[in-house]
From TrEMBL:
Keywords: Porphyrin biosynthesis, Transferase
Enzymatic reactions: 4 porphobilinogen + H2O = hydroxymethylbilane + 4 NH4(+)
UniProt KW Electron transport keyword: no
Porphobilinogen deaminase C-terminal domain ranges (all copies): 229-298
Pfam families named in the record: Porphobil_deam, Porphobil_deamC
Domain of life, per lineage: Bacteria
Protein family according to the UniProt entry: Belongs to the HMBS family.
Function: Tetrapolymerization of the monopyrrole PBG into the hydroxymethylbilane pre-uroporphyrinogen in several discrete steps.
Source species: Streptomyces catenulae
Protein name, entry field: Porphobilinogen deaminase
Residue intervals of the Porphobilinogen deaminase N-terminal domain: 7-215
Cofactor(s) essential for the protein: dipyrromethane
InterPro entries listed in its UniProt record: HemC, Porphobilin_deaminase_cofac_BS, Porphobilin_deaminase_N, Porphobilinogen_deaminase_C, Porphobilinogen_deaminase_C_sf
Length: 311
């Protein structure tokens, strides 16, 4: 098999996204010594628009321009956070996932300049987050805290925190590690306290479907466990058909003995209703596990709950 000589990598241009690209470049040069890589940074709608994401079509806001560059032949490989790749629809026609990299930390972290933990925060503390998933879970577990809208990349959010726009932040541990700022974390929240989003901590490499030489060359970078987990989680979300204002969380994990489990939740925005299911795959393949957990939540009324939220 002839290895490609040059791989042009397209990604968002945020500090986190560019750090992700550096990880991919390092893994590529270890796998394919002598290969050259080039970075093609693009700005996405999600980076440019700092208002409500549902007003700019929401889903796909962080991936659309990256996929367009891949399809236009301006790059050969796209690096995406699986979390940002819409799961309710197929991947853009003509593209395919070539690998899911080994999963990073899936948990969210609290950043409180005073060093308090989530349980210690006084009533009225303003948590900067626009995530409907984080807001609903905080409303359920810590109703005395207040969420204030905050978007922008992680570095920008920390600037806003320093400027007093919020008293504390919730951000993904994986993202903070990627931008080299795990030092700001005051508490890592367990997945029981804050159930992660679909695809948390997994990077996906996406190629043009017909580029089989490149796909074959880079597929050894894929991690089998991350692939199974991402497949179960994304099928769960596909069957559930949420929208960008629906608080949905879900986390698949290969447990003892390798059996895959998927725990998933759907919330009302006020956190007063929480639907919850947790199943093990047993003999099921990952996609069927995802389907089964989605159906379990639909039986509990997830469709009515999701459709009842304005979007
Ligand atoms: N929406 C931005 C985004 N996309 C992926 C991550 C975290 C890293 C990951 O899960 O891969 C983040 C930042 C955050 O939520 O704090």
């Amino acid at each position: 098999m002839s290895a490609p000589e040059l791989i042009r990598i397209v990604s968002r241009d945020s500090p986190m996204a560019l750090a992700q690209v550096e990880r991919v470049r390092a893994e590529l040069s270890a796998l394919l010594p002598g290969v050259r890589t080039e970075v093609v940074p693009v700005k996405t709608t999600g980076d440019k628009w700092l208002g409500d994401l549902s007003l700019v079509e929401g889903k796909g806001a962080f991936t659309k321009e990256v996929d367009a560059a891949l399809l236009a032949g301006e790059a050969d490989l796209a690096v995406h956070c699986v979390k940002d790749v819409p799961a309710d629809r197929p991947l853009p026609a003509g593209t395919a996932f070539a690998a899911f990299l080994k999963r990073d930390d899936v948990r969210d972290a609290l950043i409180h300049p005073g060093g308090l933990t989530l349980d210690e925060l006084p009533a009225g503390t303003r948590i900067g987050t626009s995530s409907v998933r984080r807001r609903a879970q905080l409303a359920a577990s810590h109703p005395h805290l207040e969420c204030v809208p905050m978007r922008g990349n992680a570095n920008r959010r920390m600037e806003k925190l320093a400027a007093g726009d919020a008293d504390a932040l919730l951000l993904a541990v994986a993202g903070l590690e990627r931008i080299g700022r795990p030092d700001v974390i005051t508490e890592v929240l367990s997945t029981d306290v804050m159930c992660p989003p679909i695809g948390a901590g997994i990077l996906a490499l996406q190629c043009r479907e017909g580029d089989t030489e490149l796909i074959d060359a880079i597929s050894p970078l894929g991690d089998p466990a991350a692939h199974r987990e991402a497949t179960a989680e994304r099928m769960f979300l596909h069957v559930l058909q949420g929208h960008c204002n629906s608080p949905i969380a879900g986390y698949a994990r290969a447990g003892r003995g390798g059996d895959l489990s998927l725990r998933a939740c759907v919330f009302t925005p006020d956190g007063k209703t929480v639907l919850n299911a947790h199943e093990w795959a047993g003999r099921l393949d990952p996609a069927t596990l995802g389907t089964s957990v989605a159906v379990a939540l639909l039986r509990q009324g997830a469709r009515e709950l999701i459709d009842g939220i304005a979007h």
